[in-house]
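Components:
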Amino acid sequence: MCLIRPGPFINTAIYRNIYMLYLKQFIFSNNTLRSGVLSKKPELLKLMERKEFLRRGFLSALGTSFILPMVGACSSDSVDPDTTGTTTGTTTGTTTGTTTGTCTTTASETAGPFPTKTPSSLVMADITSGRSGTKLTVKITIQNKNASCAALANAIVDIWHCDADGNYSEYGGTGMQSTNYTSVHFLRGRQTTDTNGLVTFTSIYPGWYSGRAPHIHAHIYNSSGTSLLVTQIAFDQSICNTVYAQGAYKSHGLQDTTNASDNVFGDGVGTELASFTGSVADGYVLTHTIVVNG
Amino acid sequence: MTKGLIQLCYRKIIDADAQKAWDKYVFEDTWMEFFMQTQNYNQEGKYRTFQEIADNVPAAANLNYLVSTAAINYIRQLKDIVPDIANVYGKLCLPFNRFRFEIIHADLKDKDGYKIAVYFYSEPVTWIDTLDGKLLIAYGDQRENLQSGAEVETEMIALQPYLNISSVILGSKKSDQEKDYLLSTTENDPI
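Structure:
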């Protein structure tokens, strides 16, 4: 690859010609010319971007002959942006490159695409990720016991639960496991409470697995990430019996553990049992209030 | 004709000395996620370090995965190209679609000592030769094309610290009845 920058001698001429060509092509391909877009010369004009290279396939004979004359010009690597005087295209550069001693200047490289601050992949409202099941809208309100049970805004709420067959999304595996980053991590999500202390998730009705009553896990943090409460949300068994008799849940059958016999909820579900409205056809809405010491 | 089909793996280490914006974001956000997730396994605050938690709470093996959720959207921003590993032109070039996240060191009371690694696994590439400390490679399985004399686009990548050949199939491609697949190393078990 040969980088052409504004500088003395032949580089300047080549740079200018390519820049003019770039301008023409840019205007040609953009009917609407926004002011300012072209006012600043690109710092570096690169003769060939790799992706474009790949798209066009291997260098054609024509492409090769076009590139070859540039090689001599590239031997000069002086950088003197925009302060160079007028030069003619006939000047020949004779400098012999940038290698001194045993080291070579590292090639210049674009910093783009610029990274942007982005939330965790857990931050999502629809956590279904393609899992089939009866639709469930989860509405959780967080209240602060230390503030007269007022709504707690800006609390971070993580929830996770199993799918219709009772399986959790991949949960760690072994420490040696590599991950295809396009894969989804279903039925897990994070939201931040609004001024009413409310978060809303769209999901599916959880299935069940042996030894546990149906449940959703919830972890509430304050806005600084300090844990306030780890808890679980319990389900109404009569609704579970309806849901588990149909659709994606049917083959798995009815739950084998009731809230009363569950080793987590067995001491009572007074503050953990959610309210439900809806139907199998329309989906259910789970409403629940969690009180923390914020 | 070729050395074989290989998978390259680059282990990118990120710590408090990170200078690039991407590295800093990953450092900050995974540290925050570690701080948050650790509380699941350390509710009494008995442990300070990731190692202590991992040694004493078996379920905490999930922390590598859970903390990686804070890095995934940054990894997506890389647009499938391994960071830092440039060809001889100085351009980033190596495609990847798998990664592994590792907490090297984390002490809840010492953020400056926090150190993580992201392993980037390349897609399979054909290793043609090694020239002056640089791998001459072609993307994908080009063994048949090379054998038949077809022209194949190649790339040269310098051998360098933290860049490993993580799996290999030596030799030419066999017949369709004896198709080769990249053997998984212990560091790269497929899901």
